[in-house]
Give the backbone structure.
Amino acid sequence: MVTVRTGGDRTAAQAVAPLAGVRLGLYADEASDVPVDPGWGVCVADADGDCSFVVPDTADGGANAGARFWVRQLPDGVPAGWFANPVLRTGPGSGSDSIASVYTFRTPALAAGRTYASTEPAPTAS
């Protein structure tokens, strides 16, 4: 399982309120326009802002054993009244020497019976 926490408004310096209804997809590569599967490759965030993908066939020898996917928001994946934030800018608060990156991340190599969570410093397995 790959679980991603989605958020809306910032509530404190290091806290963001959950945002239900965000639609995310798993993609085979960064350039792909279509999620890997229209069923298990797409999720909708619940009231807690959690969007979970249950990836099949991750056991040894399975079609998705060791697979790594890219997670990002679907083009129409924003709840009504919100807007997409496709770019994440990191660096100094002044903006100098900051870097704009596509708001996406790659999963670790998937294995059966594990949960990979975006709430860790880097998506990790448990």
Summary: The first strand starts at residue 2 and ends at 5. The mean pLDDT is 89.
